[in-house]
Design brief:
Length: 267
């Protein structure tokens, strides 16, 4: 389904009954709303599931300037989407890039969400110099997206250590095919504007988290285990769960465990 308002034409999938509690799902970089199809199929009897293609991804189209892709404007647009769909309050689930966006929304639009789960995510970079270095790296990657062979870019992207366990998953080839449905020019816009290099650090805001939040990291994802161990120390409203037999992509690598966690936390 598609909804057109302001500078956005959002593509989204709604599954389940409107009479059930709603969950908003936000995917990661180069993903789309189909990334959560297996999870949603196991949840839709008890939840009203909304999965959205974020700006620059899937079938969502943006007609405005590039700042429409940044965190604050994307978050505001998603609030408007919830308004139009008459979802006053929901649960929130975000993975990686979608998790960073979900954290931002949890801080600045906390009244719209009951509970939040962040999978393999972070509050951004605290150090200004690190952020500037990452900004430059994101700009370089965006140029690669615009100029290089997209499939080569994808295969190189998934050669990163955090995706090692994912590459061994039997559905990895299907994931690559799904990623190829994206437009690399649009992905480059997302990377420049919603990437970690352009994201304001949210570390100082963590102590202000007012709603229950659960952080999920896969046991093989050492980098994000360390980051999330630091996050959980900063607020009594934040919990951490380390999921076995999974790396950065828990929703693919250990679906059953993830669904069990969601059902328990979103009760």
């Amino acid at each position: 389904m598609n909804l057109n308002f302001n500078n956005y034409q959002f593509h989204y999938l709604l599954t389940g009954s409107k009479n059930q509690p709603a969950i908003l799902f936000l995917h990661g970089f180069m993903g789309n709303c189909q990334d959560f199809s297996t999870i949603i199929s196991l949840l839709s009897e008890k939840f009203y599931c909304l999965a959205v293609d974020l700006p620059g991804h899937g079938k969502t189209q943006v007609s405005g300037a590039e700042d429409c892709y940044n965190m604050s404007n994307t978050a505001q647009a998603l609030m408007e989407l919830l308004n139009i769909l008459e979802i006053d309050k929901s649960f929130l689930f975000g993975y990686s890039m979608g998790g960073r966006l979900a954290l931002y929304m949890s801080i600045y639009f906390s009244y719209r969400f009951n509970k939040v789960i962040l999978e393999s995510s972070s509050p951004g970079l605290q150090n200004i110099q690190q952020r500037e270095q990452r900004w430059q790296a994101d700009l370089d990657l965006a140029k690669q997206l615009e100029k290089s062979n997209f499939k080569d870019f994808l295969l190189n992207w998934y050669n990163q250590p955090i995706f090692q366990s994912l590459k061994n998953h039997p559905d990895f080839d299907k994931l690559i095919e799904r990623r190829l449905s994206n437009n690399p020019i649009e992905l480059a816009k997302s990377l420049r504007n919603l990437g970690i290099g352009n994201q304001p650090s949210l570390w100082q805001e963590l102590e202000n988290i007012k709603i229950p939040m659960l952080l999920l990291v896969g046991e093989y994802d050492r980098k994000f285990v360390a980051i999330n161990n630091d996050i959980v120390k900063l607020s009594a409203n934040i919990e951490l769960a380390i999921v076995p037999q999974a790396g950065h992509n828990i929703h693919i690598e250990n679906v059953n465990q993830l669904v069990t966690i969601l059902k328990t936390f979103y009760h």
